[in-house]
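Batch manifest, entry 17 of 40.
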Amino acid sequence: MNHGSVAVAIVSSQVMLVQASRSHNQDDRSLDVHVYTPFGDGVFIASDVPARIPSSDVLSNITDDCRTPAIGMLQVSAKALNQFMQLSDRAQKRHEKLWTAWKR
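Output type: structure tokens
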């Protein structure tokens, strides 16, 4: 991931939007990122604390242009938002299956 690249990733067991805080190469096992949580209408709000995540936790790169309407905010296209929502729904269903299996 290049500095400023945006991706959908698992952070603390939740699907989040992340932005690379520095450039990383393919051999890096972890990524330094800024974490963004959904706010509404394709807008995401930055977390105060940067994170280091395993590179294997990146689910998908967002290749569309992202806008920054204000400091600490990130706005993505409808296509990127749809991609985020699909991955988030898939992760939620997987967690529900695990929970159901564990309760039996």
